[in-house]
Design a protein that fits this description.
The relative contact order is 0.22. The chain has eleven helices and no strands. It has one domain. It is mainly alpha-helical and about 260 residues long. The radius of gyration is 18 Å and the shape is globular.
Length: about 260
């Protein structure tokens, strides 16, 4: 029991540090919840609960950047809430065995996004250069794309921040502080509405999730100091290596063991 508590706390600690410095904390926290015996659906819901405080505090930290775009915020909030609601509802209706077999593919998708997110963003910047003058059809297409992204986030939280950043580049945003603020706002809204459904469905492992949550909060605090000392390429390399190893492990455990 003590080992499991330490494992969850350390996973939350590492997850909070990684989320603040390079992203990818769910690659640590979600598998840790599975490892201690929490069923896959509940582990996914619990991971959303444990991550929410980091999203909320991050959104608050970027409040000045968000206020500068306050006329756009209702659109982001409404679409994020709707998408998160749909995604979480789909998860609550999914049989446990189906989600269990989907885990390796979801982790693979999130891992590839993490690895190739930067090149993808650079490509999208070229495509997005004229978006501010796009047609109404283009704006509606972007809203639909945001909705799809939020549905994914409500269903499986890992990788949501990376996808959201790519969307914001495509939508024509350039200021990294604004983009980070909007990314965290979207993640907060998706997680809040998803968490409500998960609570109603009694899918949260509160005790284990709270241990991860405490570790995440402390990790985020420590990251404020570590971010100036640790080379980001080194941190990203660690996340990529961990995510690849974890993904391969779940492919083996679910399909070959």
């Amino acid at each position: 029991m003590l080992f499991e508590l330490l494992l969850l706390f350390i996973a939350g600690l590492l997850g909070g540090i990684l989320n603040s410095i390079a992203g990818g904390g769910s690659f640590i926290t979600f598998p840790a919840l599975l490892f201690v015996g929490i069923p896959p659906l509940s582990a996914n819901a619990t991971n959303t609960f444990a991550s929410l405080s980091g999203y909320l505090s991050g959104t608050y930290a970027f409040r000045k950047d968000l206020i500068a775009h306050r006329h756009e915020l209702p659109r982001f909030i409404l679409v994020s809430l709707l998408g998160g609601l749909i995604g979480a509802w789909l998860l609550t209706r999914m049989p446990e065995w189906v989600f269990r077999e989907a885990i390796p593919w979801l982790l693979l998708f999130a891992t590839l996004l993490f690895m190739f997110g930067a090149p993808l963003n650079r490509t999208l910047k070229k495509l997005a250069s004229g978006h501010r003058h796009a047609s109404s059809a283009g704006r509606y297409a972007l809203l639909l794309l945001l909705l799809v992204i939020c549905v994914y986030g409500g269903f499986f939280n890992a990788g949501l921040g990376i996808i959201s950043l790519s969307y914001l580049v495509l939508a024509g945003y350039h200021n990294i502080h604004t983009m980070n603020g909007l990314k965290l706002l979207v993640s907060s809204c998706v997680s809040i509405i998803a968490l409500i459904l998960f609570i109603v469905a009694d899918m949260i492992a509160w005790y284990q999730g709270s241990i991860v949550l405490v570790g995440t909060l402390l990790g985020g605090y420590l990251a404020a100091h570590l971010s100036r000392k640790l080379p980001q390429p080194l941190v990203r390399g660690f996340v990529m290596l961990s995510a690849t190893g974890i993904t391969l492990y779940y492919f083996y455990a679910i399909y070959f063991s």
